[in-house]
Design a protein that fits this description.
With about 200 residues, this protein is of the alpha/beta class. The chain is about 40% helix and about 20% strand. The protein has six helices and ten strands; from the N terminus they run H-E-E-E-E-H-E-E-H-E-H-E-H-E-H-E. The chain has a five-stranded parallel beta sheet, sandwiched between helices. The protein has a three-stranded antiparallel beta sheet with strand order 4-3-5. Helix 4 links the parallel strand 7 and strand 8. Helix 5 runs parallel beside helix 6. The longest helix has 20 residues. The chain is globular, with a radius of gyration of 18 Å. The chain starts with a helix and ends in a 12-residue tail after the last strand.
Length: about 200
């Protein structure tokens, strides 16, 4: 929409002026939570326009959200305020390595979960050895790729110029990559893959 396009161009303008004067390297790591740092049993409950109800796991929700919203589905995220049966995902080990190399101060968790999930995510990460500051955990309460891209554009505006971003949803990865490509910053954007294809049984 026009408003978000306007806010995006404002951010781009502001960030370009900042990056011109920032000579020193300012590194930042931004990680999604669900199916990137952790797998959980939290479910999104939905109600279809005809009144039928059901649930979606995090992966199903990420893949179908845009279509379902356009069809008039409504969602209940109350389970996403807590971490249900959380287990670390493969990228968690990389996050631990980054923490030991650079420290957790410039490491952020950026999730579509509601803001109320912040403390539950913090407790889960801490229990597993990742000490990201509570204020560095952002629940957008918004599943659009644009919301993540705009949040990251703001970080360019704060002077960060070396980005590492990982997310399991391809649309988020592409939106962030397209946005960072517009700036004079170094970036690595990666799709986190939780499920690995089983090798064929040759017996």
């Amino acid at each position: 929409d026009i408003k978000s396009t306007q806010s995006f161009s404002n951010v781009v303008e502001k960030s370009r002026s900042v990056s011109k004067y920032s000579m020193s390297v300012q590194g930042i790591t931004i990680l999604d939570f669900d199916d990137t740092l952790a797998t959980t049993s939290s479910l999104v409950r939905y109600t279809a326009p005809d009144g039928t109800t059901g649930t979606l796991n995090a992966e199903e929700y990420a893949n179908t959200y845009q279509d379902l919203l356009e069809q008039g589905y409504t969602f209940d995220f109350s389970e996403f305020n807590k971490v249900v049966k959380g287990k670390v995902a493969p990228l968690f080990q990389k996050a631990l390595k980054l923490q030991s190399k650079f420290g957790p101060k410039n490491m952020f968790v950026l999730t579509a979960r509601p803001p109320q999930a912040q403390k539950a995510i913090f407790d889960f990460l801490k229990a597993n050895g990742l000490n990201i500051p509570l204020k560095n955990i952002t629940g957008l309460g918004n599943s659009t790729a644009e919301a993540k891209a705009l949040w990251i554009a703001d970080k360019v505006g704060e002077g960060y110029n070396d980005f590492y971003f990982a997310d399991d949803a391809l649309q988020n990865v592409q939106a962030v990559k397209n946005m960072l490509d517009q700036f004079d910053v170094k970036s690595k954007v990666q799709q986190a893959k939780v499920k690995f294809s089983k090798s064929a049984n040759l017996n």
